[in-house]
Structures are given as structure tokens and as C-alpha cells.
Amino acid sequence: MAASHARAGATIKFDDDKFFSIGAGLRTSFVAVEDAAPDGSSSSNDFVLDNIRLYTEGQINKYIKGTFNTERRGSGDFPDGIQVLDAIARFEFNKVFNIWGGRMLPPSDRANLDGPFYLNAWQFPGVVSNYPNLAVGRDNGVQIWGKPLAEKLVYSVGAFEGHNNVAGGSSDSDNFLYAGRLAFNFLDPEPTPAYYTASTYYGAKDILTLAVVYQYQQDGVGTTALSDDFSAFSVDALFEKNLSGIGVITLEGAYYNYDLGDVPDCGSGEPGAAACPGGRNVGGQVDGNAYLATVAYLI
Predict the structure, then answer these.
(1) 133 phi and psi, to 5 degrees?
(2) What's the pLDDT tens digit per position in 30-79?
(3) How many C-alpha atoms does 242 have within 13 Å on its Cβ side?
(4) Distance from C-alpha of 271 to C-alpha of 1, rounded to nearest angstrom
(5) How far apart are the C-alpha atoms of 232 and 133, rounded to whole Å?
(6) Exposure check for the chain: N or C terminus, fewer CB within 10 A?
């Protein structure tokens, strides 16, 4: 059983060009598993705090803005579980060209750009959506993005710290991970901010969007002793149609190709994979193809 997420927020305006806003999001669930209680024979009963997020945003003029978001997940004392989600300096000039720098979502697939609050399923599809990330799909870097052609076209491209950039890791020379995404809206433009996505608009828009993603990092997998380049390619599509009083149909699909060359990544469990040195965004990438499909109907 899962509770619908709640979002609340408030905005303080100083003048027409200066404001500060604060908001929150919550996902919580109850899970019962047969024979999983501590006595080994009873059903477990657990209330889970899946996500609680604090969102803040502000701007000092119409071009210079900032975002700072935090998240707490899992168990443990509340202060110990808080981590920085987004910390972005945003230079936004117009719909066509903008520059962001800091910790943010790199150009990637729809599932990652949805995040857990805007998927059509409760669980994030981490088995297939396996782009390397520092935390919660994010990485530190800089990117440009825009929405030309009356917001029908959405592009984002950037350079990020990337994978295995630690002593003993394959990229101990600190190679960037380069990422880009290009999406085209054949029907209505998706009404999401920036380059973000959602997997449903509940019939408010008729959507047909096709997107391609590519990421590359030299010496992105393995260890210092044995390394190879990392590249990933994916295609995702979303179709949603309001059926005029009889419901809303939503179809989503994605294809992924992860190419690790001839070297298994450290810590991946693949044959010949070495142990990983310590650090974040290190190890665990797996070579191969993956697929995602969802079908939803809103009564």
C-alpha cells in the first residue's frame, strides 16, 4: 500500500524580479512481507519513508536564479540521512539557451528525468535505467539546455565529473563524462520546467515525444590497472491521449545500450571484475541491452 505523494509550497516575492520559494514532497508506504518479522515466522509490518524532499528556489533578477534541494530516504536518525539533491546556479536567458552549473540531473532517459515523483510506477526502474550517477541520478557539472521551435524541441548537453574518478579507479586522471539528450514533441509540448520530464499529464495534454540520449567517458569503467571507455545510448518514447470522456491512455517505452568495451567494471560482479576502490559514483556498470515498457489507463 502506498500513499499518494504530497507537495506543498510557498513563495515570497521581494519585487517583480526577486523571489524565494520553499516546498516539500513526500512518498511513504506500508510493506508487509510473509515470514519476514524478526521471529522468522510472522509477517513483517513496516512503514517506509521512501522520500521526503525539501525544495528551495530563488532568483535575484530574471536571468540569475538558484536551486537547492535536499532529500532524506531510508532508516536512521533524520539528520544523518539528509543529503544534497540539487545545488544549481542557473543562468536563464530565454527559452532557447540557458546555462546551469552545480549538482543536477545530467541529460539522461525519461525515467531519470521523471524522478520518483513523476513516474507511472512506484518503484524506480533502476535495473534498466543505469546511467552512472553521484547520488539519486545526479552528478556535478555544467550543461546548456533550451526549448526552441515553440518548445517542440528540447535539448540538453553537458560535461560532468563522471564515473570512477578516484585513486585506483579507471578514470583517476579525472576524465569528464559527456552527456546529451534531444527530444521532439510531435503533438503538444510537454508542460514541464527546464529539460525535465514526466510520464503522465493525466489527460491535460496530448503527448507524443521521442528522445535520444548519449553519454561517453574515456576510461570510464574498470580500474587503473585495466580500464576501457564507457558509452551509453538510449531511446525513449511517450504517447498519451485524452479519449474525450472515456479515459486517458498512456504508453511509454525505452531501449538502452551500455557499452563497456572489453573490460568489466569494478564491483559489477561480472566475470573478471576487480574490486573497487572507495568513493562515490564508482563501479557497478554492466555491459548489455535493456528494455522498458509501461501501459496505463486513467478511468
Answers:
(1) -155, 155
(2) 999 999 999 999 999 998 888 899 999 999 999 999 999 999 876 544 44
(3) 10
(4) 39
(5) 13
(6) C
